[in-house]
Structures are given as structure tokens and as C-alpha cells.
TrEMBL record:
Record keywords: Glycoprotein, Glycosidase, Hydrolase, Signal
Biased composition (Basic and acidic residues): 1077-1089
Record's protein name: beta-glucosidase
Pfam families: Abhydrolase_1, Glyco_hydro_3
Family of this protein: Belongs to the glycosyl hydrolase 3 family.
Lineage of producing organism: Eukaryota, Fungi, Dikarya, Ascomycota, Pezizomycotina
PANTHER family: LYSOSOMAL BETA GLUCOSIDASE (PTHR30620:SF16), PERIPLASMIC BETA-GLUCOSIDASE-RELATED (PTHR30620)
Coiled coil spans: none
Ion transport is among the record's keywords: no
GO BP field: glucan catabolic process
Region named Disordered: 871-906, 1068-1107
Basic residues composition bias: residue spans: 1091-1101
Length: 1123
């Protein structure tokens, strides 16, 4: 019995889930292993054999190709790669549903697993990659590597997963994690560069985004390729072709190429694909990796511990069978199975498997081993329960505005600027009236911007050349044409042709980095040289002209060789070994600074434009400037403008917002200078009071610092210098952007319902402007410049200043500290006592001008007119109850916080009595691997090593910065002396997140929120004496083993400071693992090497011996610890 269900515009049939005749493998209430066992018991040998083949299919006139039905019904093949791009989401979704229904109606009804090569980039070749017209468009993976952003890798893979799943694609035939050690190799474009560790960092997030934390109905399984690393190809040829079948290791550097695959296995990649190549000159058998038992079984499965599915590359039995040319197809299939292959990519001959079993050459149990894994994966993906997709949802999800915007922005960010002599780029505004000669781009892209395109260089003012990486020309078609091999230099004729253009007019050259090119002549002669990793012409033009502040951010993910001869002299398997590279890994210029200088220096080529603004009540004698928050505009203050009718009001749109969107934001200093221009030109008497919220508040403060003569007073709210969480969050603008757009992108009715629940007043025109202003580029600039504004900068403000915090959303603690700085600031040797301070609005949100406009206006007037702040009664906020405006009071911060505590479990967190400038008894600080801080009494009481819990937010007020930019470089494992010359007790968390760390006075501490619920890792406890070490209860309080496992005594004295006792404690055995042990050992060793290197320079000479001995002892302990 089957039941029809409706899926958007397509109907599909599912087996009934009730009734006495339901088979166990259809019963979703049973465990997966039980369902797999039942299914396997019902399968014939022919049906099992069919599951071990991964064929190719495509859309032909929006329907099935000629073979698919016979493959499903007769050959029982249920794994297919979708060939071609997803150009119409609705059509592909309907086709997928029809294919799933056909398969469900046949035999056992096993669902189809649909896979795809990359679809989101710019390489369009059926065999390796496709360009999907309907998907969001990003760079190639090299572009993500150029941005050095694991967060971006996760963001991309999450979006790609959503688009894949919406049309029914459940397997990604990527990531490609081969390492570019051979620049000539034609598959470099799909990799993540030359650095194995960078690749590993990115691919972990890439896999996580596609698969999720657990495989399920919304997962896309990843296929990591090409094991054991396809980079070191002999002479840079490619093993798709017989002439390029050899993989060579002249530097014996196999281990380097395995680094990403080790990371992928730890990250949980579900499938692994060996490459076509055959290794030569190694201990491995000289046969292609698909037939190589030493590589697949011995190395991948046994040594590296991979338990997933091994899929061969396409056509190894019938087409690309390097090293086994003399074997028959049957013998090749047998050799591949014996090597460890679970499923044959690109083949459609399950009869070979049937023959091998029936002839006794392969046991059916070997077939069951692979089929069981393949079927379990289908169950985990939820395909047996519902393989169909909703075509209406697919149409909405695929290529939606948000996804497309992120992809387009990534294209722009990834550009890598290699040369820019005399700050040629970005082009000046005057260039918009020039004439352009172009190659490699559609003139229509320029004409759409009203730019003039001419036919020859002689007629032009500028030339734009968008070129492919050099390659060996060929008349071949198909793969031989698309996989570029051969020379990485332009030929003599092409060099001469380009040189003539460079000599005629200033030329901007942009090279698509399919492979690292050797182009010293271009770097020398071009006005500017850039590289891209896949981008549109619009993206290129935005970068060249600096539109909306766009500028190149990419850093080379590989070395660019100087010549073909240098490449030929290098070793195919060794990274970074070409002699005298033209540009090294990590090279990449920026011209954001140039743009800022242009604006702030009033250069004639790009004079600073005036902010768009509204002027009200011009006849009034005193001026107030109202600066809006980020994403907003001058309309934000509309509700309380009538309450300020006795003042001349200036309401600008800040740079990159609304009517000032054309003005680059660049920095707070740039914004402040624009505000200063506005005041100088329009404020009465050339001075003004400034009111600023959020970003506008920061701009107001910097304006007062840079232009004190223009500012009478400041009223700023939600603009306290970032501390703790906010400082960390500012480093991830893409996440902030995603959160903002998830709210702003809601349907109007839903958005305003949410706003009303929060207590905000409705303002439809403002919402429209905020949606326009929500741009990743703007948010990236805004948060990066705000993050550089520090607490010390507040002390430079000369104007009378009120720092306000909304009690419900702003950082009250940071606001308090800013208020203390204001109250105690000294300007030109004189302490200012002008009443500046901080206050809190108990029940206010961050944007409380939209919540309590009347109170906001009364507060502004009181401060401007130097009257007492509005009074009222104070009350605690009730959950889900909106406070009335009349119940609010502007309260001094110190009063609002008096005696206040927060709670963390059963521990009180005192947020009020910490004075970082006071020595006091609480002067030693301890950090543990859960992300918690403790303060310890000094001097140490030998009878009671006391400690107290301190919340990370409070710790941040002491000036600790999260996270350290270079943890391994900044932190050392060493006995640490406190300012008074005493060695203090410290805990060293090992292997918890980024690097081992020591918590010490005056030293930056890493904050690791991800570890807040993880068990403690093994630690070192350092203490001044054996007695204190023995009597300390601190390890027991941390749940460490009660008895120390080792003791190291170093009775040396340096500058009157006693050497430290070091004792090792182990966490409970159940909280550690072998993998963790290896990671801890490596991380400790790495930090030890860094510390040893530093000691050679003399900076840490007194701690060298104790440090190295301590680490040696620690490594011995880790090595010997039972698992």
C-alpha cells in the first residue's frame, strides 16, 4: 500500500508507515543498524552489486536521459552524479522527485543518492566542476584560502548545503584538499593552496558546514579527494591523461600531503576518493591508487583509521587504469575491491561484481561489507524515510538574495593586489569620464556604468586586461582543453603583444589564478597587477574604482614562481621550494589606507564630499547634531525631533548609509572628519552639541577627540569601547551580517510583531533604509574600526560627556569603566571636573531612542542645558513585560551597579569591586580550560591556597584581550613572576583550544567559550614551594587526580626570585583520549620550540632551563599516561 503526498507542485508516493505488512527496513521507529540488516538480507547479489556503482546522469530537455531508467531498474544502480549545472532549481527539483519515485517503485525501492561536483564557482567542465546558473556564485576554494577565513569556509559550506539539499543533492564530490606543490598541475584551481596547515584549518569548517554535527536529513556528505594527495604530479601533468599518470615524490615528502587528509578524517568526512595517479619511486606498488592496497587499506584504513566509504575516481576500470593496463576489466575490478574500494565512480558494470562472486574470486561477505556502509549512509541521510524535496522551497532557497549577496561580496574581497606602484588603484573619480580599452571582459559591463569603451589602446585613457593564467595552447577538446598543463609563462608572442599595450596606456591586469603564473614582465610593466580566483566583471570594476569602499583583501595562498625554469628545477612534492619567487605566499597589498588618505587629505582627485543631511529649526541659536547607529539613517530620530524644537538640528546620514552611501566609511577618523566638516559649514557659531547612538556614538567621541574646538558636549549611548564578547564578535562581521539580515529579512508583519514585542515603535521608512544599508562590506569596516577604539581613547575627550548604557542590551560594565575614565581624565596636565560620567537606563534596549523617545529627548535636553537628569522611580525588569517610559530614570552607573551580582551556577560573580589599578590582596589571576578566571590571594598562604571565581566579562575589564592574535607567539609555559617579585600559582591548560597558555599578570589570556562545558584537560600547577604544592587543594577543586604523578624541582635563584615547583596532575581518565593526547603533545612541543627560540635572544634566558626540563617531563608524562 502506498500513500500519495503533495510536495509543492510535484506529487510523490511514499510507502505507508502503518499496517501489518510493513517491512522492517521501512519502519523508521527501528534503529538504523536493524533496518540495514533487514534490507541486506532481502537483497539479491545483483541488487548488492548495483549499489557499488556511482554512475552519471543529467537533465535532457528537462527530463531523464536515455539510460537512467535501465540503470535503476535493470542494473540496480542508485548512486548518481548530476552532470551539468543546476540552472533552474524548480526543474531540477521536479526531476529529482520523479527519479526518486521511479526508483521507489522498482524492486526494494532503494532511494537515489544524488551527488554533484562543485557548482558554486567559475570552472565549467562536466568532469571536474560545473557552474550552476541558479545557485549563489562564489569564488573557487582558492579564494577562501586567500581570505584565510575558516568562518567564511563554514559560511559558504552551510549555504552550499542548503542549496544542494533543496534540489535533492545529498553528496558533495568535494572538497579537493590536494596541496599545490607543483605549480604546473592543472587541478590547482579547486584546491586550497600550498600550505597544508591552512588547508586543514579550512577543510574542517568546510566539512562541518556540509555535514553538520551529525549526519541527518539536512546533511550533505563530503567526499574528500584526492587521496593521498594529487599535488605532486610528475612534470605537472594530470593523470586524467595517460601521459600524466605518474605521481612522484623526489623530496620524500608524502607526509606533508597527508596532513589535510588526517584533518578530514578527524573532522568526520564520510567518503574518500583516491586519485587516478600511480606513485613512482616509492615503497608503494606502482599502480593507480584505486588499485593500491598499500595506500587504501594499509595507509588510509589501518594507519589513519578511516572507517568511511572509499569511492574510486571516475572510470578506473574501463578508462583510466594506470599501472594495470594489462589486466582485464574483471581483473581490475577484483584488484580494486582487494585494495579497499567500496564503490566504483563513473562505472556502470555491476555484472563484473556478480561474476567475481559467482566464480569464487571474491567472497559475498566482502560485497556485504561495502554495501552495508552504503545503505547505512542512505538511512542516515533520511532518504528511506523521505527522499523528496519541496519544489516551492527549492525555488525560494536557491540563489536567494542573501546567499547571492554573500557570494558576490566574497568575490570582491578575495581579489589579491600584487603590485600597485604610486597607489595607482583605486582609480580617481575623474577616471569615470575616461575611455577604456578592455580584453577578457564584456564591454557591456562598463557601458552599464556609463563608462566609455573604445576599440584600440591608442584611443583609450586606461586599459583593463582580464587574462587567464598562462598555459600550453592545445587544439584538443574536452578535458584536455579545460585542464591546463604545460608552461606557466606567456609565450614570446603574447608577451610582446601585451608589452605594446603596457607601453601605450596605463593598464590594470587581472589574472584568473587557475595555476600560479610566472609573469615578472607583467608585474614590471602594468600600472597595477591583481589576481582573482573566480569573479564577475562587476566585482572587478567595484575593486578597480573602490566602489562602496570595496578593496582587495586576498593574500596569496601559494608562491608565485619567477620563471618556468625555477619550477622545473624544483621538486614536485615539496612546498615553497621554487628559487626566488616573484611573490611569496601571503603577499597581498591593500589600498584602504590609500583611500583613507585621499579622503582625509582632500586630494583633488577625490575631494571629500559633504554628508547628506537634514537641517531643521535653522532659526534657533544653538545646534545639536544627531548621529544615527549602524545600518540606520537620520530617520531614526524622527519620533523625538518635535521635542527638540528649540534647537537647530543637523541630522546627517553617515558614510555608507542611505543618502551618504556613496561615501566610503573607511575608519572612525574618516567619519569624524566628515562630521567636523558638517559642523564647520552648518552649525551656528561653528560649534555643536553631538548626540550619538551606537556607531554614531563612537563617531561622536572621535569627532570630539580630533576636533575639540567644534564640540560643546557629547551625549552618547551604546558606544562604550568593546570588551570581552563584543570585542571577539567584532572579528566575525559575516556572522553579525547574517544575524542582522535574518531579522531585517523577515516579512514586514513578522518583523514589526517582533519589534513590538521588544518594545520598539514602528517606522516603515526606517526599515526600508536599514535593509538597503545592510551590507557586509559596511559592517566589516564599521566593526573593525570600532574594535580599535579603546578605553584609553575615552580619556582624550575634552568635551563634557555623558556615557549612557541601555541596561537590557548594552555592556554596563564597560560603560562603568568608561565613566570612571571620564571622571578622572587629565587633559594638558589639568584634571577635568566637568560632571562627565556614565549612567544606565535600567529597562532600555540598545536602540532606546526608538523605545523611549520622550525620555531620550528629555535626557538630551537636560545634559545639553546642564540641568539634573530626568528623575523617576527605579524598578527591576520583568520578563516579557514592556516597561513604560514614565517608569525610567537616567541613573548614575555607580549607583545602579552597587552591590549587584550575577550568577554562574551556584557561584556569585561580583561585578562591582574590581579595581585593576589597585594592588590589594587580589593580584594573582588564574585561568582554566573551561574559560573561567580565578583570582588568588597574594602573598600565598601556605595553609590555604584560596581562590575565587571571576566571570570572563569582569576579567575583560582588567585589560585582557580575547583572543590573542598569535597565541603561540604571545604565551609561554614558564614560571611567571608577579610585579612584586613573587612567583605566583598558575594553571596551564594544555590542548584545550588553540595553544597551551599561561595566565599571568599583564599577559593576554585566551578566552575559549567553546570549552565552557568540556572536561578539564591535563594541567601543570606551578607554585613557589614544595609545602604549598603539597597542601594546595586547588587541583582537587578542579577535579584533577588527587596524587601528583611527577615533581620537578629547580632550586635556582634569578634576581632574587626563587625557582618554581612544577607538579603534573591528570584529569580523570575518561575525559581523555588518544587523539587528545597526540594533540596536547604536539601543541606543548610547538610552544616549547617557540619559547626556546625566544630564550636565545635573551628575552627569557633565566627561564630557559626550567622551561625545557618542565616540558620534557610533561611530554614524558603525556606519552606514558594510560588511555
Amino acid at each position: 500500500m502506498r500513500t500519495a503526498i503533495l510536495l509543492g507542485a510535484a506529487s510523490a508516493v511514499l510507502p505507508a508507515v502503518s499496517g501489518a505488512d510493513i517491512l522492517p527496513y521501512w519502519d523508521s521507529t527501528r534503529c538504523i543498524d536493524e533496518r540495514v540488516d533487514d534490507l541486506l538480507s532481502r537483497m539479491t547479489l545483483e541488487e548488492k552489486a548495483g549499489q557499488m556503482f556511482h554512475a552519471r546522469t543529467s537533465l535532457i530537455n528537462d527530463t531523464f536521459d536515455a539510460n537512467i531508467k535501465s540503470y535503476v531498474a535493470d542494473k540496480h544502480i542508485t548512486h548518481y552524479v548530476f552532470s551539468g549545472g543546476v540552472n533552474d532549481a524548480r526543474v531540477v527539483a521536479e526531476w529529482q522527485n520523479a527519479l526518486q519515485q521511479f526508483s521507489r517503485d522498482e524492486g526494494l525501492g532503494i532511494p537515489i543518492t544524488l551527488s554533484s561536483d562543485p557548482q558554486h564557482g567559475w570552472t565549467d567542465d562536466t568532469a571536474v566542476s560545473n557552474v550552476a546558473a541558479s545557485f549563489s556564485r562564489w569564488t573557487e576554494p582558492l579564494g577562501i584560502a586567500a581570505l584565510r577565513s575558516p568562518e567564511l569556509a563554514l559560511e559558504f559550506s552551510n549555504i552550499a548545503r542548503e542549496e544542494y539539499v533543496s534540489v535533492g543533492i545529498r553528496q558533495a564530490l568535494h572538497p579537493t584538499v590536494d596541496i599545490i606543490t607543483e605549480p604546473r598541475w592543472g587541478r590547482n584551481a579547486q584546491t586550497m593552496g600550498e600550505d597544508a596547515n591552512l588547508t586543514s584549518t579550512l577543510l574542517v569548517e568546510y566539512i562541518k558546514g556540509f555535514q553538520g554535527d551529525k549526519i541527518g536529513p539536512h546533511s550533505v556528505i563530503t567526499t574528500t579527494k584526492h587521496f593521498p594527495g594529487g599535488g605532486p604530479m610528475e612534470n605537472g601533468e594530470d593523470s586524467h591523461f595517460e601521459w600524466g599518470k605518474n605521481q612522484t615524490y623526489p623530496g620524500n615528502n608524502q607526509e606533508y600531503h597527508l596532513i589535510p587528509f588526517r584533518a578530514a578524517i578527524k573532522a568526520g568526512t564520510r567518503q574518500m576518493m583516491p586519485y587516478y595517479s600511480r606513485p613512482i619511486g616509492t615503497e608503494w606498488e606502482e599502480v593507480a591508487f584505486a588499485f593500491n592496497k598499500g595506500v587504501i587499506t594499509d595507509l588510509l584504513k589501518n594507519e589513519l583509521g578511516f572507517e568511511g566509504i572509499v569511492v574510486s575516481d571516475w572510470g578506473v576500470v574501463t578508462t583510466r587504469f594506470w599501472g594495470v593496463e594489462d589486466l582485464t576489466e574483471l581483473e581490475r575490478a577484483r584488484k580494486a575491491l582487494e585494495a579497499g574500494i567500496d564503490i566504483f565512480g563513473g562505472e556502470t558494470k555491476p555484472e563484473l561484481i556478480v561474476q567475481l562472486v559467482n566464480s569464487g574470486q571474491i567472497a559475498e561477505e566482502r560485497i556485504d561489507y561495502s554495501v552495508r556502509k552504503l545503505m547505512k549512509e542512505k538511512f542516515e541521510l533520511g532518504l528511506f524515510d523521505n527522499p523528496f524535496v519541496n519544489v516551492d522551497v527549492a525555488e525560494r532557497v536557491v540563489g536567494n538574495e542573501y546567499f547571492s549577496r554573500l557570494g558576490n561580496e566574497t568575490q570582491r574581497r578575495a581579489f589579491t593586489l600584487l603590485t600597485n606602484p604610486d597607489d595607482f588603484l583605486p582609480l580617481p573619480q575623474s577616471a569615470l569620464n575616461a575611455s577604456f580599452y578592455v580584453e577578457g571582459m564584456d564591454p557591456a559591463a562598463l557601458e552599464a556604468r556609463n563608462l566609455k569603451v573604445v576599440g584600440t589602446p591608442a584611443e583609450a585613457d586606461y586599459a583593463f586586461l582580464r587574462l587567464p593564467s598562462p598555459f600550453k595552447p592545445t587544439t584538443a577538446s574536452g578535458l584536455a582543453a579545460s585542464i591546463n598543463n604545460g608552461s606557466i609563462e606567456f609565450n614570446v608572442t603574447e608577451k610582446a603583444r601585451q608589452a605594446e599595450i603596457y607601453a601605450t596606456i596605463p593598464t590594470v591586469v587581472d589574472i584568473k589564478f587557475n595555476r600560479p603564473p610566472a609573469v615578472p614582465e607583467v608585474a614590471e610593466a602594468a600600472a597595477a597587477l591583481m589576481g582573482n580566483y573566480g569573479s564577475s566583471h562587476d566585482a572587478f570594476l567595484d575593486i578597480v574604482f573602490g566602489v562602496d569602499g570595496w578593496a582587495p583583501e586576498g593574500k596569496l595562498p601559494f608562491d608565485m614562481p619567477r620563471s618556468m625554469a625555477a619550477v622545473e628545477a624544483s621538486k614536485e612534492d615539496v612546498p615553497f621550494d621554487t628559487e626566488d619567487p616573484l611573490f611569496e605566499f601571503g603577499h597581498g597589498l591593500s589600498y584602504r589606507e590609500r583611500l583613507a588618505r585621499r579622503i582625509m587629505a582632500h586630494e583633488e582627485s577625490l575631494p571629500r564630499p559633504m554628508l547628506a543631511f537634514v537641517s531643521l529649526n535653522v532659526e534657533k541659536p544653538s545646534t545639536i547634531v544627531l548621529l544615527h547607529g549602524g545600518l540606520s539613517c537620520h530617520l531614526e530620530y524622527a519620533d523625538f525631533i518635535p521635542l527638540l524644537s528649540e534647537y537647530h538640528l543637523l541630522l546627517p546620514d553617515l558614510p555608507q548609509h542611505s543618502k551618504s552611501f556613496h561615501i566610503p566609511l573607511v575608519s572612525l577618523e574618516n567619519v569624524a572628519d566628515h562630521v567636523a566638516d558638517l559642523i564647520s559649514a552648518n552649525a551656528h557659531g561653528g560649534k555643536a552639541h553631538i548626540v550619538g547612538l551606537s556607531f554614531g556614538g563612537f563617531a561622536a567621541q572621535v569627532t570630539a577627540i580630533r576636533h575639540p574646538s567644534l564640540v560643546t558636549s557629547l551625549f552618547v549611548t551604546g558606544a562604550e569601547p568593546f570588551q570581552g564578547f563584543r570585542l571577539r564578535a567584532s572579528q566575525y562581521p559575516s556572522l553579525i551580517y547574517g544575524f542582522a539580515w535574518s531579522l531585517l529579512g523577515l516579512p514586514d508583519a513578522l518583523y514589526w510583531r517582533y519589534a513590538a514585542w521588544m518594545g520598539l515603535r514602528r517606522h516603515d521608512d526606517l526599515l526600508i533604509e536599514m535593509r538597503k544599508n545592510c551590507q557586509l562590506g559596511m559592517l566589516r569596516d564599521e566593526f573593525s574600526t570600532i574594535a580599535r577604539y579603546r578605553l584609553g581613547d575615552v580619556g582624550k575627550i575634552e568635551a563634557r560627556t555623558l556615557m549612557v548604557a541601555g541596561g537590557r542590551q548594552d555592556d554596563v560594565g564597560a560603560s562603568k569603566l568608561a565613566g570612571q575614565v571620564l571622571e578622572n581624565r587629565v587633559i594638558r596636565g589639568q584634571r577635568l571636573d566637568d560632571g562627565s560620567r556614565s549612567v544606565v537606563i535600567r529597562d532600555a534596549l540598545h536602540a532606546w531612542d526608538l523605545q523611549f523617545p520622550d525620555l531620550f529627548a528629555r535626557g538630551v535636553l537636560a545634559w545639553v542645558e546642564e540641568r539634573p537628569l530626568p528623575e523617576g522611580h527605579r524598578r527591576k525588569e520583568k520578563k516579557h513585560r514592556q516597561p513604560s517610559e514614565d517608569s525610567q530614570q537616567l541613573e548614575p552607573e555607580e549607583e545602579a551597579a552597587a552591590g549587584e551580582t550575577e550568577t554562574q551556577g551556584d557561584v556569585a560573580i561580583d561585578c562591582t569591586d574590581i579595581n585593576p589599578g589597585e594592588p590589594g590582596p587580589w593580584s594573582a589571576w588564574v585561568y582554566d580550560s573551561r574559560g573561567f578566571y580565578y583570582r588568588c590571594r597574594q602573598p600565598i598562604d601556605s595553609d590555604n591556597l584560596d581562590y575565587e571565581f571571576i566571570h570572563p566579562r569582569t576579567a575583560s575589564t582588567l585589560g585582557f584581550v580575547y583572543p590573542p592574535i598569535e597565541p603561540a607567539a604571545q604565551l609561554q609555559i614558564t614560571p611567571v613572576t608577579q610585579a612584586y617579585g613573587q612567583i605566583i600559582p598558575i594553571l596551564v591548560p594544555v590542548g584545550t583550544y588553540e595553544a597551551p597558555a599561561v595566565a599571568a599578570i599583564g599577559q593576554d589570556l585566551p578566552y575559549q567559550p567553546e570549552n565552557s562545558v568540556t572536561p578539564l584537560r591535563p594541567m601543570l600547577l606551578v607554585s613557589p614551594s614544595e609545602q604549598q604544592m603539597t597542601q594546595s587543594t586547588l587541583p582537587q577543586r578542579h577535579g584533577l587526580a588527587s596524587a601528583p604523578v611527577d615533581t620537578l624541582t629547580q632550586p635556582s635563584v634569578q634576581n632574587g626570585v626563587a625557582g618554581a615547583m612544577v607538579r603534573h596532575y591528570a584529569a580523570p581518565r575518561s575525559t581523555t583520549s588518544q587523539a587528545t593526547s597526540h594533540r596536547e603533545r604536539n601543541m606543548v612541543r610547538d610552544v616549547a620550540k617557540g619559547a626556546k627560540s625566544r630564550s636565545k635572544s635573551g628575552s627569557n634566558r633565566h627561564a630557559r632551563d626550567p622551561l625545557l626540563k618542565t616540558v620534557d617531563k610533561w611530554l614524558d608524562h603525556v606519552r606514558e599516561r594510560p588511555q
